[in-house]
């Protein structure tokens, strides 16, 4: 087993907000000191609310995927449902709300599946992925004016192939999907198990 | 198989740099139009150089992991080796340079393993992960003054357990490690295969 790590935090000598544009972008600039005494004049951290995403399995064992255009990379790509946690909202509620709004799917059994950082170095927020088992289409998709989301209810094998071939570019979505498929994969061969017994 | 997606790009009506702090932070603000005609007044994109990371397997089949303090989340965490591609550098060269600098390991056979986006929505860059097989310790670690990196040469099973239990928080590192372990997992049981044959 790998050792539990001892934290080696930097000391913040000075901190100020250097850019804030509505709810979209907030940048903190800091003057920090490392444990060895060395001072870093400027460290920039992007401040965001926490995010959520959902791996949603339908009652017939397929996965609810979406596609949308993403301007950062200038491409339309497959994704899982994701969004921002509103103020006062729990991660679970945000994930259920986003799935319902973006796809119309809901219900089922929900559990927290994975916690990730978009970038441990310069993002202060986390992304919570939920696994929803047994969802069904319960209402029409309800998109915001600036959303253009297409829904794909896809066979697991097709999603696995998509992810393995690089079709899900967004790291925050690729990681939970890969964990999901790894949990489904046999960890050892049953016949080798039998041979041992 | 999932359909190949048709791109639905936004049209950029106006674009300007709204923040640039040395090589660390560059923010582009744009006025864009969706294919349906709707205009989005402000879209912000973070501009970064491309990044690299490395899954490095030693000649005895262990994995070269590191830990370092990450100020975004305020925690010291396990990671794989990663860094920024310097101007004029190929992704492969950057990955080999980073592995050597951060750990002293080098050599072996290298192949491109995965391409990810830190955030398709608001980052313009990509992260290239390489798989290096058969690396060996060839020189002392050579850290930059602001780096405080500890090296761990760990058994694969321990790294797999670490990732599955959420010990690698950085999405850009968790995803390639999970893909690596999924590729190592048997995709079907050999004995079921024999029963079919």
**Assembly category:** homodimer
Order of helices and strands of chain A: EEEEEEEHEEEEHHH
Mean pLDDT of chain A: 93
Task: Estimate the strand proportion of chain A.
Answer: 35-45%
Please identify the structural class of chain A as seen in this structure: alpha+beta
What's the story with the biggest beta sheet of chain A? 5 strands, mixed
Low-confidence stretches of chain A: 189-197
The largest interface is:
A-B, 87 and 87 residues
Looking at this protein, list some descriptive labels.
homodimer; 197 residues; alpha+beta; Nucleoside Triphosphate Pyrophosphohydrolase; 2 domains; five-stranded mixed β-sheet; three-stranded antiparallel β-sheet; 4 helices; 11 strands; 40% strand
State the gist of this model:
By secondary structure, chain A is an alpha+beta fold.
Report on the structure:
Two copies of one chain form a homodimer. Chain A starts with 10 loop residues before the first strand and ends with a helix. In chain A, the strands form three sheets. In chain A, strands 4, 7, 8, 9 and 10 form a five-stranded mixed β-sheet that branches. With 197 residues, chain A is an alpha+beta fold. The longest helix of chain A has 14 residues, at 171-184. Chain A has helices at residues 91-103, 156-164, 171-184, 190-196; strands spanning 11-21, 25-33, 39-46, 51-58, 63-70, 75-79, 81-84, 105-106, 109-116, 127-137, 150-154. At the A-B interface, strand 1, strand 2, strand 3, strand 5 and strand 6 of A face strand 1, strand 2, strand 3, strand 5 and strand 6 of B.
